[in-house]
Design goal:
magnesium, Holliday junction resolvase RecU, 6-stranded mixed β-sheet, Restrct_endonuc-II-like, 5 helices, globular, tRNA_endonuc-like_dom_sf, 11 strands, alpha+beta, 201 residues
């Protein structure tokens, strides 16, 4: 099925549901994508009253449908109605939480091409209004996940726009970001990192 952005540009592959990559042996995350891990984590948080975080739905306009059988319909072409902002939002301890989740196969740096200008603008707007905003980044082949504050991501994006490098070195993410160890329940306990980074005085 062909999905297209507003304006007609073809959407190539899902940011989070791309072909699954082999991961290091880890009982908690074997074969799971970042999106699946985060969805399970958010369900864990909601069920236990820890936080209310949801994946934002993406509005889609269906334009072509085939009916190979009378009882079945197959969507052949669709458009995103509008550019998406970030993947997840909600509330924790009275504060608005907003974040984007991305994966890369790269082992040494996180390519900035995984983000879009409208997402960066949205993050800046959230921060300007006092919201907590960050990116959760996974190096899928290394099975390592980090939380990186949006301010650092925005700074690197602006440097790229001015002709700087087009990726964030992994060593920089290790230095300025926060490693999130993989677990069983929750799978990616990013709220414990949020508590430490944004709520501890």
């Amino acid at each position: 099925m062909a999905f297209k952005y507003p304006g007609g540009k073809e959407y190539r592959g899902n940011r989070l549901n791309a072909a699954r990559q082999p991961m290091a042996a880890d009982y908690a995350n074997r074969g799971m994508t970042l999106e699946e891990d985060l969805n399970a984590t958010n369900e864990y948080y909601r069920e236990r009253g820890i936080a209310v975080i949801h994946k934002k739905p993406t509005p889609v306009q269906i334009v072509r449908v085939d009916y190979p059988k009378r009882s079945a319909a197959v969507i052949k072409e669709a458009y995103f109605r509008q550019a998406s902002t970030t993947d997840y939002n909600g509330v924790y301890r009275g504060k608005y939480i907003d974040f984007e989740a991305k994966e890369t196969k790269n082992k040494t740096a996180f390519p900035l091409k995984n983000f879009h200008a409208h997402q960066i603008r949205h993050m800046a707007q959230v921060m300007a209004h006092g919201g907590i905003c960050f990116a959760i980044l996974r190096f899928s082949l290394l099975n390592e996940t980090y939380l990186l504050d949006a301010s650092h991501l925005i700074a690197r994006w602006n440097e790229q726009e001015a002709g700087g490098r087009k990726s964030i070195p992994k060593r920089e993410i290790e230095q300025y970001g926060h490693y999130i160890p993989l677990g069983y329940q929750p799978r990616i306990d990013y709220i414990s990192v949020v508590e430490k980074v944004y709520f501890t005085v």
